[in-house]
């Protein structure tokens, strides 16, 4: 998962391959609560691993449920409708799928079993209305106090002064959020012992497919709700939760929308995008997004648990659509509209305004940054594509769906007309706070990069070259981490060649033998460690004798040629930071930013001396300096790829700078080369 404050997406040109979706958030949190309310143990397979499910799991633990990981599954031992903990304060983040149903379930349990609970979230959660649900629960007789603004979290739930009135219908508004009705349907079986319990909906019920998910899952746990249209729901008397034993969570249909859209935009010329985890056997209403995507031009095929998408019509076709049935997935249509001819209008989306952010306002603001013409209303949005695309830094409002939707804007080179100048390469898109996708799809960007191909400009590269012990490796690693880019320590390739050759008994004068070793290296960089054939060799490669041998090994043309393709293979989306001695001169001469780090031999010897002393290795500064000067002379005067600054490189003298100051200098240079508005 990306943990950087921003993520730069270069212009992207096509997509193909296969993706597997994470579990549905809507299903995951409903299943967790149902399992927590049931008697016995439920094994939950394919549960979504996200911020929302983590807060629900933590809440269930706090309430006394058994919550245990079982390999890739979770074992939830429920309460059987009886409180094990009568007092708790629960933090629920910004998870509406946890806050709303837990409010209802704990309100009736606290009222009937003398409990006391406080439910809180992040500041945005305290701005999301819950008053209609609270009003419905108060009709029943539940004791609920708003601890802040009336009608919003945080809430206190306490024992009721009188018996709950389950004989009269409970009325709830349906035109703000279907989660209010879902919360009641999940909670009311707990108080159905004496009477059937009826819920009546005032106004038009929005997001009906999400209520369908609730009814389907209630049936899996033994509750057969009787439905009269979408206005009246009856929970039979003496309903009781029964664990199904085990249950599988299907892939998230809302998350599928981004890849359905991606296929419609970028899977062309024989390419296809396969989506696994959700298909035509899904219980999720958001799968009806496919109908809207087809109307815009997508070619979608499906089967049990899978979808396959290709571009059909191009450009895409503008549509006008009532989005009541797909409120979350409809956001993806707003970005697809950037690639359509004409104006796309999405109606009946008032619920967007009470989600993780005011999504109508957020989408309108960010679409305009890209150059789109947007008209917004209380319950609609109209989007016309840009006449000219603009690079933009997309504010995500701590809203996972905003971040994922706007990643699709990076495919803007595909809107370039066939007769455009060859230099037309598209514009990059910066996603601010990409970490917010952890709410539902922590690995979203990694998944996207696994199927996307870069545009004509290629994958951005920053090279950081310099002499031995100049600190270029530490600097490059830190810059890569700050940008969320891949990291290549090219010196590690030569040191790994030296280490492997030494272990195999190959002399540093055996050019053919060394080249063979180099060609067979299985080297990987992750977790800020270096792995050779699955073995952590980070410390081994830093040994002085290995570094000295690497300097000699790197002088052989056959070795350098053997490692050339290996180094190029590290250039992968979203970008690469590469350090070495010839990254900017030979390996990546077209790099977007080239840096050459310098420091005197005396300063470098002193730094190296401190490193070795800290590891308990006794050495002499004079000997280290002499060795560094000898390596410098050898590297600068070798016939192949001599050490020197690349043309156009920024020279960074770090003799008197801290690593943080060096990182800031490079990031400032990088920022000045970008074009974001």
TL;DR of this structure?
The protein is built from 21 helices and 35 strands. With 677 residues, the protein is an alpha/beta fold.
Structure characteristics:
single chain, 677 residues, alpha/beta, UDP-n-acetylglucosamine1-carboxyvinyl-transferase, Chain, Rossmann fold, 3 domains, five-stranded parallel sheet, four-stranded mixed sheet, 35 strands
Describe the structure.
This protein has 21 helices and 35 strands. By secondary structure, it is an alpha/beta fold. Strand 25 (about 390-395), helix 11 and strand 26 form a beta-alpha-beta unit. Mean pLDDT is about 95; it is low at about 420-425.
Annotate the secondary structure layout:
Blueprint: E1 6-9, E2 12-15, E3 17-20, H1 25-37, E4 41-45, H2 51-62, E5 66-70, E6 73-77, E7 87-91, H3 96-113, E8 116-120, H4 131-140, E9 143-146, E10 155-158, E11 170-173, H5 178-187, E12 197-202, H6 208-220, E13 226-228, E14 232-235, E15 246-248, H7 253-266, E16 273-276, H8 289-296, E17 298-303, E18 306-311, E19 316-317, E20 320-322, H9 330-336, E21 340-341, E22 344-347, H10 359-369, E23 373-376, E24 380-384, E25 392-394, H11 400-407, E26 429-432, H12 444-451, E27 452-454, E28 461-465, H13 472-483, E29 486-489, H14 490-504, H15 511-519, E30 523-526, E31 529-532, E32 535-536, H16 544-553, H17 557-568, E33 576-580, H18 583-587, E34 593-598, H19 601-614, H20 621-637, E35 650-653, H21 659-672
Parallel strand pairs: 3-16, 4-15, 7-8, 11-12, 19-21, 20-22, 25-26, 28-33, 28-34, 29-33, 34-35
Antiparallel strand pairs: 1-26, 2-27, 4-6, 5-6, 8-10, 9-10, 12-14, 13-14, 16-18, 17-18, 22-24, 23-24, 30-31, 31-32
Helix pairs in contact: 1-2, 1-3, 1-6, 3-5, 4-5, 5-6, 7-8, 9-11, 13-21, 14-15, 14-16, 15-17, 19-20
């Amino acid at each position: 998962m990306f943990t950087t404050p921003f993520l730069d997406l270069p212009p992207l040109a096509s997509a193909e391959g296969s993706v597997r979706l994470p579990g549905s958030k809507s299903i995951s949190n409903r299943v967790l609560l149902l399992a927590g309310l049931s008697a016995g143990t439920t094994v939950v397979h394919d549960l979504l691993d996200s911020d929302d499910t983590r807060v629900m799991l933590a809440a269930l633990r706090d309430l006394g449920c058994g919550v245990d990981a079982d390999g890739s599954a979770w074992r939830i031992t429920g309460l059987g409708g009886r409180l094990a903990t009568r007092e708790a304060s629960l933090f629920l983040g910004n998870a509406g799928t946890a806050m709303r149903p837990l409010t209802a379930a704990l309100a009736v349990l606290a009222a009937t079993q003398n409990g006391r609970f406080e439910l809180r979230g992040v500041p945005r959660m305290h701005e999301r209305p819950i008053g209609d649900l609270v009003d419905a629960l108060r009709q029943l007789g539940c004791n609920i106090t708003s601890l802040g603004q009336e009608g919003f979290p945080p809430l206190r739930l306490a024992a009721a002064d009188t018996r709950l009135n389950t004989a009269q219908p409970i009325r709830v508004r349906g035109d703000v959020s279907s989660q209010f009705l879902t919360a009641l349907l999940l909670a009311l079986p707990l108080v159905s012992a004496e009477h059937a319990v009826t819920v009546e909906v005032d106004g038009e019920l929005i997001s009906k497919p999400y209520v369908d998910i609730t009814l389907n899952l209630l049936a899996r746990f033994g509750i057969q709700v009787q439905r009269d249209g979408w206005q009246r729901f009856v929970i039979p008397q003496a309903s009781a939760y029964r664990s199904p034993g085990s249950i599988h969570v299907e892939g998230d249909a809302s998350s599928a929308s981004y890849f359905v859209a991606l296929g419609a935009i970028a899977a062309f010329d024989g390419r296809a995008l396969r989506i696994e985890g959700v298909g035509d056997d899904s219980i999720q209403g958001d799968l009806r997004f496919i109908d809207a995507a087809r109307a815009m031009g997508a070619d979608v095929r499906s089967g049990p648990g899978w979808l396959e998408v290709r571009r059909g019509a191009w450009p895409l076709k503008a549509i006008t659509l009532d989005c009541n049935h797909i409120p979350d997935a409809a956001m993806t249509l707003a970005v697809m509209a950037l690639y359509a001819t004409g104006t796309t209008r999405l109606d009946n989306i008032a619920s967007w305004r009470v989600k993780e952010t005011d999504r109508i306002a957020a989408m309108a603001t960010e679409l305009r940054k890209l150059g789109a013409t947007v008209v917004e209303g209380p319950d609609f949005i109209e989007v016309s594509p840009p006449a000219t695309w603009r690079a933009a830094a997309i504010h995500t409002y701590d809203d996972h769906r905003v971040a994922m939707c706007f990643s699709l804007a990076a495919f803007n080179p595909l809107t370039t007309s066939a007769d455009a100048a060859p230099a037309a390469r598209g514009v990059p898109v910066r996603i601010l706070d990409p970490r917010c996708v952890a709410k539902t799809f922590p690995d979203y960007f990694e998944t996207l990069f696994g199927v996307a191909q870069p545009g004509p400009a290629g994958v951005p590269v920053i090279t950081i070259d310099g002499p031995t012990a100049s600190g270029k490796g530490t600097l490059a690693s830190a810059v890569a981490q700050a940008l969320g880019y891949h990291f290549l320590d090219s010196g590690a390739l030569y040191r790994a060649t030296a280490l492997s050759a030494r272990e195999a008994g190959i002399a540093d004068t055996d050019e053919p033998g060394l080249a063979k070793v180099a060609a067979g290296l299985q080297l990987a960089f992750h977790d800020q460690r270096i792995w050779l054939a699955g073995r952590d060799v980070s410390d081994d490669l830093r040994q002085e004798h290995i570094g000295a041998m690497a300097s000699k090994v790197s002088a052989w043309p056959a070795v350098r040629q053997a490692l050339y393709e290996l180094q190029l293979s590290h250039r992968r989306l979203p970008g690469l930071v590469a350090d070495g001695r010839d990254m900017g001169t030979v390996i990546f001469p077209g790099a977007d930013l080239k840096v050459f780090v310098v420091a005197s031999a005396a300063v470098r010897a002193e730094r190296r001396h401190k490193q070795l002393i800290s590891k308990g290795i006794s050495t002499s500064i004079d000997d280290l300096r002499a060795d560094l000067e000898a390596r410098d002379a050898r590297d600068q005067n070798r016939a192949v790829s001599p050490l020197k600054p690349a043309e156009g490189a920024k020279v960074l003298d770090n003799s008197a700078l801290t690593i943080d100051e060096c990182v800031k200098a490079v990031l400032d240079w990088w920022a000045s080369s970008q074009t974001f508005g």
